[in-house]
Specification:
The complex is a heterodimer. By secondary structure, chain A is mainly α. Chain A has 23 helices and no strands. Chain B is an all-alpha fold. Classes of the chains: A mainly alpha, B mainly alpha. At the A-B interface, helix 1, helix 3 and helix 14 of A face helix 1 of B.
């Protein structure tokens, strides 16, 4: 049983919002909105907030508080020992994401330093700057720096997590509000806001827009990653589940909307007419293209001179860095917790995770092809993780889970039977539809090579990597159960 | 600004931001009551 807890409800909520709010809220949300018909996207996005994010986040909060174990011990407790491998899979997927997410955090840190140092405002070719940086050894150094910062925070345990988030999340919100005020007061900004909220009724009927809205909720709320489950291990016994879960989900999506307002206002004001085309199919149509090439180009057009441009772009990259770091530390904590559950001393577990993180992040730091492969394989695997969490709840007994784990001690709201339908029917259906759609879509991008496991974004590479990981964990299931369920946590 | 734009803005901002603010107020009240 853990002896460390978040000191208050607010400490926990702010830390969990730190998990949920990541770079995806800032650099993915806006371009996906643009590519899916503006306001037409927002309607299904709100629907899936309610039927994907809220039930899964609620489940994760309740599981962590109920089992007081990481993902492996949680699945063994909920679904039975023979399903511990599912928990290992959930933990592995998020840890595999950590290996390259620290590279992302490093990129943000570099661009923050480049902005503050004046490189961004003085360069005339942002594409060349990005290619020269991403093609060199710079990302490796910044990846290691991100892992060092993350490990130093986790070294201080749950208090370190809480204190860091108590400082960084308010800073992030102040930055976003400051940027929003400046962005919406630019000439022409309101056309961007109108675009963000204007629905195209034909697109609203397009099933792909609905699937993209579900995907955005699956990827950017942190639901189904096992991260919220891990933080909930440190929830006080009298801590509420349902209201905290709702606050997390709605808080995360509120930040996405704020980021959308900033980006659409900026783009329409500084690049009227052409900007949105860039976002849909040009330089800004990828995460890295938007954040590191297209937006820095626009920042140079901001009225007020170099000083204002530097302040605006530095605040933007500081926000992106903070969002990345608060998510990265939760991934380090998740992996560390898995090893402490197996009886390893916390410090040893952390250094093991740090060493693995630094080492296994090297390929993504040095090769964008490798990075895109990992992002594809483990991004889609997150949907399987969400399915496993729903499976664990179903095996435990959905109604029993609702009554004892969600509506248990400390509950502010009594959740009704509607939750049973959401977690045992709607979430599994969404998981199956999403996985099938993404894998089918990958065969259309590359009709000749979709089966090839050595292509970066193929169906074959997913099946090969998931298959290896699942086979290893199924084979090691008994060992995982023995180590996780019999050992006492060593702090 | 058309009616449909206004409707989408009110619905999305109302539900997402409004929901967050309402849940926050409830949480503050519950926390004070504990």
């Amino acid at each position: 049983m853990t002896r460390d807890f978040f000191t208050s409800r607010w400490g926990m909520i702010i830390s969990v919002i730190g998990i949920a709010v990541g770079t995806g809220n800032i650099w993915r949300f806006s371009r996906i909105v643009a590519q899916n018909g503006g306001g037409s996207f927002l309607i299904p996005w709100v629907v899936f907030l309610l039927i994907w994010s809220v039930p899964l986040i609620m489940a994760e909060f309740a599981i962590g508080k109920l089992t007081r174990k990481g993902t492996i011990g949680s699945m063994a407790t909920l679904a039975g020992n023979r399903y511990a491998w599912m928990g290992a899979f959930i933990g592995f997927v998020t840890t595999a994401i950590m290996f390259y997410y620290s590279v992302v955090a490093g990129w943000c840190m570099y661009y923050l330093s480049a902005s503050m140092g004046g490189t961004l405002s003085s360069t005339s070719d942002h594409m060349a700057l990005w290619e020269s940086f991403s093609g060199g050894y710079g990302p490796l150094g910044f990846h290691i720096a991100a892992m060092v910062i993350g490990a130093l925070i986790i070294l201080r345990g749950v208090r370190g997590i809480e204190r860091t988030n108590r400082i960084l999340i308010p800073i992030l919100l102040v930055i976003l509000v400051t940027l929003a005020i400046r962005a919406v007061t630019l000439d022409g900004a309101w056309e961007g806001i109108a675009y963000l909220f204007t629905p195209d009724m034909d697109r609203l009927m397009d099933y792909r827009v609905w699937l993209q809205a579900l995907t955005q909720n699956a990827w950017d709320t942190g639901a189904g990653w096992g991260l919220i489950l891990t933080y909930a291990i440190y929830a006080r016994q009298k801590e509420d589940v349902s209201l905290n879960a709702a606050l997390t989900a709605f808080g995360n999506n509120s930040v996405s909307l704020l980021a959308g307002i900033i980006i659409f206002s900026t783009i329409f004001a500084l690049s009227p007419g052409e900007g949105v085309k860039e976002l849909i199919s040009g330089t800004g149509s990828t995460n890295t293209g938007l954040a590191f090439i297209f937006l820095p180009q626009l920042f140079q057009k901001m009225p007020g001179g170099v000083v204002v441009q530097t302040i605006f772009s530095s605040l933007f990259f500081l926000g992106l860095t903070v969002a990345a770091l608060t998510s990265l530390i939760s991934m380090i904590e998740l992996a560390t917790r898995l090893f402490t559950d197996m009886g390893l001393h916390r410090r040893k577990a952390l250094w093991l995770v740090f060493g693995m993180g630094v080492l296994l992040g090297v390929p993504s730091a040095l090769s964008l092809q490798f990075f895109y492969n990992q992002d594809w394989v483990w991004g889609v695997a997150l949907m399987i993780s969400g399915g496993f969490i729903a499976f664990g709840v179903i095996k435990y007994g959905t109604d029993k889970f609702r009554r004892t784990a969600i509506n248990g001690e400390g509950s502010d709201f009594q959740i009704g039977r509607w939750y049973n339908v959401l977690i045992s029917v709607l979430v599994p259906v969404q998981v199956v539809v999403l996985i099938v759609w993404w894998l089918w879509a990958s065969t259309t991008w590359d009709p000749d090579g979709w089966w090839d496991p050595f292509r970066p974004e193929s169906l074959g590479t997913c099946l090969l990597q998931w298959g290896i990981v699942i086979l290893v964990f199924v084979g090691a299931n008994s060992w995982l159960v023995r180590r996780t369920m019999s050992s006492r946590e060593v702090s | 600004m058309t009616l449909s734009t206004l409707f989408t803005a009110v619905v999305s901002l109302g539900i997402v931001w409004g929901g967050f603010i309402v849940f926050m107020i409830i949480a503050i009240k519950r926390e004070r009551a504990k």
